[in-house]
Amino acid sequence: MQSMRITPSLVAVIVVVALVLVFVLKFWGQGGILPPHEFAYGTALRNSDAIPERMDQFLSLEVLDANQVQIQTFVGNNSAKNLSPLIGYISSQRGHDFSALVAALKAVDQLSDQKEKAIRLVKTLLPYKEALKNKAQQGSIIVFVYYALKKPSELSPEAKGKISSLVRQLDTAAQADKFDSAECPSNYLRGNINIYPAALDNTSWHDTVEFNSPKDAPVLEIRFMGLKGIFRYLLDEMTAKTGAAFVHVDGESL
User: Which of 97, 101, 117 is nearest to 109 (CA)?
Assistant: First the structure.
């Protein structure tokens, strides 16, 4: 068998691969690739009009970074950081005249304020929720509203102290140290609200979860991929602010 010949170019390739591997492992170790957790909690609402109201209340929590709110629309394999995939899907539907809705969604899509865009999106869809309802398509047509906690250094001393204490209780010591440091990984802080245009009330959770509410009560679904202590704080703040009770629906449990 002929032995492999070591050439300068081969050595260069090996060095590059090794450097990339070191970078990836370091990035991973800092929490830069995979999120620490994945939680999903829901709260049952009094009616459909409460969906944008609760979204606004959550996204307006003082500890959240308004500049980190971002929508992303998924329709099948098509995705974009705007409403174009959803607008295209609705435009293609037959059996209903959605021209007014499409025009309204195009206007919403021009908004630069991402929080306002998300809230206006739901308000625009509400009058059409029955016409848009499609159980088979519910899981393939989703608008994610991404949000994030402010960097720990930007939190008020009171909020940072409360969150840090919860992180120390519920997460690992290493994660707590990183949260308290100046180099807190960004994915410790992130989550998303899921909006399902083909099932706006999101009532399918009633099939598997007990909300202690009518089975037709709309459910607001809030997900978080960061630290347990942070999500616990956010849900507690929402309960204190609105009286809403949150129930585990999917993923890990706090």
Answer: 117
Decide if 252 contacts 39 (C-beta within 8 A): yes
Q: Where are the domains of the chain?
A: 38-251
Beta bridge partners of 219: 44
Cβ atoms of residues 230 and 238 within 8 Å: no
Stretches in the chain below the pLDDT threshold 50: 1-4, 8, 10-11, 13, 15-33
Q: CA-CA distance, 46 to 9, in Å (whole number)?
A: 67
227 close to 164: Cβ distance less than 8 angstroms: no
Q: Give the Cα separation of 117 and 126 in Å (integer).
A: 14
Note the residue count of the chain: 254
Task: Put residue 52 in one of left, alpha, beta given phi > 0 → left and psi -120 to 50 → alpha.
Answer: alpha
pLDDT per position as a tens digit, 73-86: 999 999 999 999 99
Enter the pTM of the model.
Answer: 0.85
DSSP readout, 184-230? --GGGSEEEEEE-GGGTT-GGGGGT---SS-TT--EEEEEE-S-HHH
CA distances (Å), origin 194, targets 2, 119, 199 = 58, 12, 11
| 133, burial (CB in 10 Å: exposed 0-12, middle 13-18, buried 19+) | middle
Provide the sign of the torsion angle of the four alpha carbons 186, 191, 196, 200, taken in this order: negative
Q: 193, 187, 237: which is closest to 219 by C-alpha?
A: 193
